[in-house]
Amino acid sequence: MKHDLLQVLTEMKDGYVSGQQISDRLGVSRTAVWKHMEDLRKEGYVIEAIPRKGYQLKARPETLSEAEIKAGLSTNKIGQTTFYKSKVTSTQTLAKEAYREGTPHGTAIVASEQTGGRGRMERPWQSPEQTSISVSIVVKPDISIREAPQLTLVTAVAAAEALEQMTQLPVQIKWPNDIYINNRKVSGILTEMQAEAEVDKIQMMIVGIGLNINQKQAHFPEDLREKATSLYVESGKEWPRAYILQALFIAFEKWYDTWMEHGFDHIRETWEKYAALYERPVKAMQGNKTVVGHMIGINREGVLQLKDQHGEVHLIYSGDLE
Ligand code: BTN
Predict the structure, then answer these.
(1) Which domains does the chain have, with CATH numbers?
(2) What is the pTM (predicted TM-score) of this model?
(3) Is ipTM over 0.95?
């Protein structure tokens, strides 16, 4: 009910909707409409009520909730099933459970705080309460196992585009899975998969995205302060997390569908547009092997290419860049 009421108010944007219209549309009494309006107000929504004109939503609270995330969300599948929890160990674990229970493609598990957030290479990921977004999206792509790493790059393009469009900040992708603003990390991506090796087929993948939104510089642990940033630190403004998440869902659906319909080659150019260190000298660490060269982009499969001083091109499948 709360979600439906928010949906109606959101659709009206700058107009007014009368109590009668809402009660007809939602099939409840006007008294029930009034009661739910009061509940929304208690949660921090500012709803203006003008006699003979009706209701208008003037401001939303800075909260993450299923109703806030889904109100006006214009995707087909991504985020249309969303489970929100204020505090979890890791959204990745909940997403795996949801998959086992048969949840549809595009389901999102969202949390405001994680106590055991996981990053790549077994590193911890900090997701503090009220200021960050942690989301894991369950997808069921029809691809082979060797194509699976491309999803990290597809997600990075979506996250970079969504953050750039929302904030106008200079967003960059640092291969393979980090989103940077002004040389500091604002977002990280972790993809995990389940596959059927005998038939070389992916059954499902879970895309985990952690976003630093409204943290102040002092909120970051000391060892991260020089390396991490948030949208607040970069812009001096607080951002409504539900809007940022909606923008992420929309961009993710667009780039995921492009990938499925046209292949990774259609994403390559946009990835390179956002790439930090493009055509710059870098060091790639792959286990105990180090490759030094100029980054010349990614190939049609999404594998990073470095050209060394002898002109030899090295393909980098995994690891970290310096
Ligand atoms: C990294 O930079 O190493 C990746 C960080 C990924 C963090 C996200 S937050 C949502 C999801 N849940 C987790 O436990 N990890 C991912």
Answers:
(1) 2-59 (1.10.10.10), 66-274 (3.30.930.10), 281-321 (2.30.30.100)
(2) 0.86
(3) yes
